[in-house]
UniProtKB/TrEMBL annotation:
It comes from Candidatus Neptunichlamydia vexilliferae. The keyword DNA-binding applies. This is Addiction module antidote protein, HigA family. Keywords: DNA-binding. PANTHER family: ANTITOXIN HIGA-1. The keyword DNA-binding applies.
Amino acid sequence: MLMLARLGYIGYETNHLCIFKNLSHDFAGILDTALRLAKFFGTSAEFWLNLQSDYDLKTTMKKSGKKIEREVLTQHEAA
């Protein structure tokens, strides 16, 4: 998602390019990263969490959206 040449600026000792992907969606790691990015860029942790959430939702919709539409009934259909 977010590309940085050097993650040392936010306290990581590695040069991985995709921060959130490298955390394997470990929620505690995502929270930690959001706080670090917020401090570095002068934004809020919520901004980074919302960005990640939007990305995850869009990715999941592309991957599973049609299958979910076929398999899951609405509450009215199930009644």
